[in-house]
Amino acid sequence: ARPLVIAVDGPAAAGKGTLAKALAAKLGLPYLDTGLLYRAVARRMVNAGLDPAGDASVEAQALQQQDLARSDLRVPEIDRGASLVAAQPAVRAALLDRQRVFASETGAVVDGRDIGTVVFPDADVKFFITASPRTRALRRHRQVAGETPLEGSALDAAVSEIVARDARDSSRETAPLVQAADAVLIETDGLSAAEVLDKAGEIVALHHTRR
Ligand code: C5P
Questions:
Q1: Which domains does the chain have, with CATH numbers?
Q2: Which of 35, 83, 194, 204 has the smallest set of CB atoms within 10 Å of its CB?
Q3: Residue 14 assigned to a binding site
Q4: Is 11 annotated as belonging to a binding site?
Q5: Which residues are in the Cytidylate kinase domain (predicted)?
Q6: Helix ranges (DSSP H) in 13-124
Q7: What pLDDT digit, counting tens, does each position of 51-90 carry?
């Protein structure tokens, strides 16, 4: 049988990464976080003194050969920069092969925005993971700032930033963030990571019995 490919798409900080990582461990599959590719392109632009809204095709090409430096990729400047370079068709085209090659031999759990729609339209199982902007802003804050509370105008600003990034990702012409017709929707408001993993695990098991 061909290797199992599981697509996990959805907006920022909905719990995609947490689910995809846990699912990969459970199934013994490699995990690919495709957001890191766009983040690494944005990081190259910023480090070169370039505006990530400008043409990033050279930086995306240069990334082909290179290992992803995992440092300094999850900072607000790069959250924004990644969604700006990700709107560029030439950048997306340059990163497509790398994503497909990664999963072709062994299968993989792959998280991103366009995995079930563009990168692996034939994925065995597709998930669309989402939560309200408020839940997502609070989760993202907890990841970076621990238990420091987020409230009042700081919470409002974090929610606006997430809504703006969703809008950029959903409204772009190339590979917009959209739920694939055959994706299973999981809304994670009020669910723990373990509960989300249970739900997703059941759906993957169902797929196995049908294969
Ligand atoms: O998932 P993460 O927040 O790390 O992704 C950063 C940005 O990269 C997203 O806001 C999105 O613009 C872009 N991205 C994308 N397609 C993917 C993964 C990420 O456009 N498959």
A1: 5-210 (3.40.50.300)
A2: 194
A3: yes
A4: yes
A5: 6-203
A6: 16-27, 35-47, 57-63, 76-85, 89-104
A7: 999 999 999 999 877 777 667 898 889 999 999 999 999 9
